[in-house]
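call fold(seq) -> tokens
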Amino acid sequence: MARWWCNDMGLEKIESMYAWEGFVYDIESCRSTYEMTQDFNEMKARGARVVITFEFCGTGADVDYYDDVITAAGNAEISIIPLAWTLPIHAVGQSYGPNDTFLIKSVPRIEAVTQAVINNPEPVLAIAIGDEPLYDDDAGSPAALASYINQVPYGWQSSGNITPVADAVDFFMVNNFPYFAFDATTGGNASSSWNDFIQDIEYFQSIANGRPILVTQTGWPTNEDEFAPNSPDIVASVPSSEGYWNLLDSFCQDYFKSMNIGWMWRSWEDDIDGWGVKYLNGSDKWHWNARTEC
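ret:
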């Protein structure tokens, strides 16, 4: 789960958001402004309104690259949530070295994202601090993380007293993955997938004190290659992924509209292996669409 800041205008927009909002977008491959604009244009043409970045390009501390990301979003007229990646290393396939600390690696990324937003705030819906800074204990403590969030004028349950972070954020953006539940089976199974989804939301509602909640990462992979499941009965396949997508969409009016909660799919393409709605060659895994109002 990531932590967030936004300005008053962005917060007003978030408070009115519900249903499907858009995609997680991996930037580790350092796509060009042109390539990102093309992707964002396609997302918007198919109904997406928001995109959140994932991972980082290079060291993640390059203001110019985040300038490019925000410019591409502006070109496509889609809202962007740039994420300052606070895990010192990449999520998969990298071991910690002596310089892989929050102060050396993560703080410069927060500063780079912040400066890029100052340079071009118009397309920016919010700033993300993540990907899972409490669960991964990126900053060493919730209080330390909150101090960095508060400097941007702009795994909760397992993290002990998270009050400092809860008090520091303007709204809650949540990673919610029933795929990792111990009772998970198929993505479209309402008795497990949906129940697990709403149980996680209820926890955040209990600490949000009325502040908005946006699910910025949810999804169901088409294979188990990137992240292993916890259930022996899991089905990771295209039909299972499609079933979970359609399950979320089916609750547009009965849940997401009534609760004023939006959801975003991880991810756009299979940069995160198995998790995209599109293969790396750009073709759709299934004929996907979702309601943005109901």
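Confidence is low (pLDDT under 50) at residues 153-159.
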